[in-house]
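queue> pop job 88
queue> type: inverse folding (structure -> sequence)
queue> payload:
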């Protein structure tokens, strides 16, 4: 069996570093060959979403993955964490850190994150600070995690102030994306993942956007070939964008299209599932396009095309769709101040010239933003 492999190579002044992303069906039940080199005889801590357990049905991939690890090492310990953004907090992190240390890990120990973006982000962050940093592998189990969060090395947890404000850059040593694991994913979560897929088309590649638009029914119906292509293409685009900007000092910020608005919206939901990351970003992208049109950067037609595609996918597209979150312009502006892209108190947004071409807008005029939000809310 030969899975698709993308090598993420990161160039910086000090060293070159690269790691593989494996993408295919049936990977987790046939991964001994792949894992041998990474796992052999190391102490492994498997941090997994509690959706996966020995008791639960539809769990063959999880069980067979564990059996493979056991063949490769005598030391395997499991830590189970609930999925969902409520878990991305300091007390859950402390639990992971203390529990991992109780297994007497050393610097050659390996963390494996088995779950969605939440598990990947928090387990990756734990790996980055345990003993000042140990290796970790990502086994993403949601569409969002396979196309986005497992790639690129951003790890972290949320703060009460806003999203992902505490964290580090820590690249995995490998990512294994088995498409079969997505079969149990609820439709709502699948659609949330589609938002990040569409994001790549919108920021970088109009042809990719066209093809998602043309094939979305097959993708939603789980057409294996098309799903495989979409995941591959998304990871390819992300790896190209981060190649020369691993720590987001420049172009990598484009991947944040819709996220300044999205993170703020998400934090109004208190991470309790009222609104999930991909849904908040769906609204955020539509807002970014409408703001781009308002400021004269992008044609109204392009913006309408984007918004109507999200609507077709039954995703939220406006702040009016989340009235229950009691968002106001002033509260929203306060949230923007915490955005990691800001410099010297100036707000930065990612806007679009057209579909397939995003740009970084520094020094955003707060009066324009206020007027825009007043119209939107
Ligand atoms: N690090 C990054 O670069 C990056 C990028 C994008 C998003 N993120 C983060 O990722 C998080 C969102 O990730 P997510 O959408 O994967 O959320 P998640 O990890 O909470 O998973 C969503 C839900 O799906 C369940 N689940 C996971 N795998 C399943 C499966 N195979 N079958 C059935 N249910 C399954 C989980 O238990 C959870 O309830 C956010 O915190 C976001 O900030 C990080
Ligand atoms: Zn995102």
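queue> result:
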């Amino acid at each position: 069996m030969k899975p698709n492999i993308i090598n993420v190579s990161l160039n910086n002044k000090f060293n070159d570093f690269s790691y593989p992303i494996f993408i295919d069906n049936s990977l987790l039940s046939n991964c001994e060959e792949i894992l041998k080199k990474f796992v052999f005889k190391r102490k492994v801590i498997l941090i997994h979403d509690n959706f996966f357990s020995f008791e639960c049905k539809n769990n063959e991939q999880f069980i067979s993955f564990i059996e493979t690890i056991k063949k490769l090492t005598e030391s395997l310990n499991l830590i189970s964490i609930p999925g969902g953004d409520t878990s991305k907090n300091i007390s859950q992190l402390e639990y992971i850190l203390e529990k991992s240390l109780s297994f007497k890990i050393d610097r050659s120990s390996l963390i494996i994150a088995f779950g969605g973006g939440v598990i990947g982000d928090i387990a990756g962050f734990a790996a980055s600070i345990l003993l000042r940093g140990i290796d970790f592998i990502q086994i993403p189990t949601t569409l969002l995690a396979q196309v986005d969060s497992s790639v690129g090395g951003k790890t972290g947890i949320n703060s009460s102030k806003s999203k992902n404000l505490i964290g580090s850059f820590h690249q995995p040593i490998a990512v294994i994306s088995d498409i079969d694991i997505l079969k149990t994913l609820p439709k709502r979560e699948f659609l949330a993942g589609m938002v990040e897929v569409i994001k790549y088309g919108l920021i970088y590649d109009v042809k990719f956007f066209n093809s998602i638009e043309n094939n979305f029914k097959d993708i939603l119906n789980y057409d294996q070939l098309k799903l495989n292509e979409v995941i591959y293409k998304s990871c390819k685009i992300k790896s190209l964008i981060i190649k020369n900007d691993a720590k987001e000092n420049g172009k990598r910020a484009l991947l944040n299209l819709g996220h300044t608005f999205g993170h703020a919206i998400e934090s109004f939901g208190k991470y309790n599932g009222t609104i999930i990351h991909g849904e908040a970003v769906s609204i955020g992208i539509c807002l970014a396009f409408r703001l781009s049109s308002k400021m004269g950067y992008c044609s109204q037609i392009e913006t309408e095309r984007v918004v109507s595609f999200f609507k077709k996918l039954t995703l939220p597209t406006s702040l009016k769709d989340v009235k229950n979150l009691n968002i106001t312009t002033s509260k929203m502006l306060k949230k923007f101040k915490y955005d990691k892209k800001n410099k010297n108190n100036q707000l930065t947004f990612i806007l679009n010239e057209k579909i397939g071409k995003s740009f970084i807008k520094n020094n955003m005029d707060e009066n324009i933003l206020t007027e825009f939000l007043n119209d939107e809310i």
